[in-house]
TrEMBL record:
Protein name listed in UniProt: ITA2B protein
InterPro entries: Integrin_alpha_Ig-like_2 (IPR048285), Integrin_alpha_Ig-like_3 (IPR048286), Integrin_dom_sf (IPR032695)
Pfam annotation, one family: Integrin_A_Ig_3
GO MF term set: integrin binding
Length: 171
């Protein structure tokens, strides 16, 4: 019949060991099938697989022929990332007769301020690290300035690399 095993986890020589009692006494020649479901946490920094060493042994007859097998299980982390973004103001219309004021250091003399905000969310179920977000911002169109980048900021422990030339005219 099917029975639940009594298993006890312990640490032995720096390794995590789980000992399961299959039954005592057993008759000679008995055959037992065991299905085990293991729940392992903290796999974020693991390689692409985890290895289990399984061994069957008897307390009654110590022997070097005790059955041993190694099982390697692939580790696959899954996380759904979501990128949200918006512009403030959402819509900007430039008047047809508008011209920037050359030489001015005031931002409003060079155009209408538009702020773009992007948020990267992890919807799980796994945690993520080492995520790269590549964001391309068109700064020119037809040889003319389309967007003039004043500053770039991040929150939440993120870093920016290959930052475009910000505020080259020192506005």
């Amino acid at each position: 019949g099917q029975e639940k095993l009594s298993c006890n986890p312990k640490k032995e020589n720096g390794s995590h060991v789980v000992l399961c009692e299959l039954g005592n006494p057993m008759k000679a020649g008995a055959q037992i099938t065991v299905d085990m479901e293991l729940s392992v946490s903290g796999l974020e920094d693991m390689a692409d697989a985890i290895t289990f060493h399984l061994q069957l042994w008897s307390k009654n007859s110590p022997s070097s022929t005790n059955a041993s097998v190694t099982v390697t299980v692939p580790v696959e982390a899954e996380a759904v990332m979501e990128l949200r973004g918006n512009s403030l103001p959402a819509t900007t219309v430039l008047p047809t007769s508008w011209h920037r004021v050359e030489g001015s250091q005031r931002v409003e003399d060079h155009g209408i301020k538009v702020e773009h905000v992007y948020q990267l969310h992890n919807k799980g179920p796994s945690t993520v690290s080492g995520v790269t977000l590549h964001l391309s911002i068109p700064t020119q169109l037809g040889g003319r300035i389309l967007l003039y980048l004043l500053k770039l900021g991040t929150e939440g422990g993120m870093n920016c690399t290959n930052v475009p030339d910000l505020n080259p005219k020192q506005v």
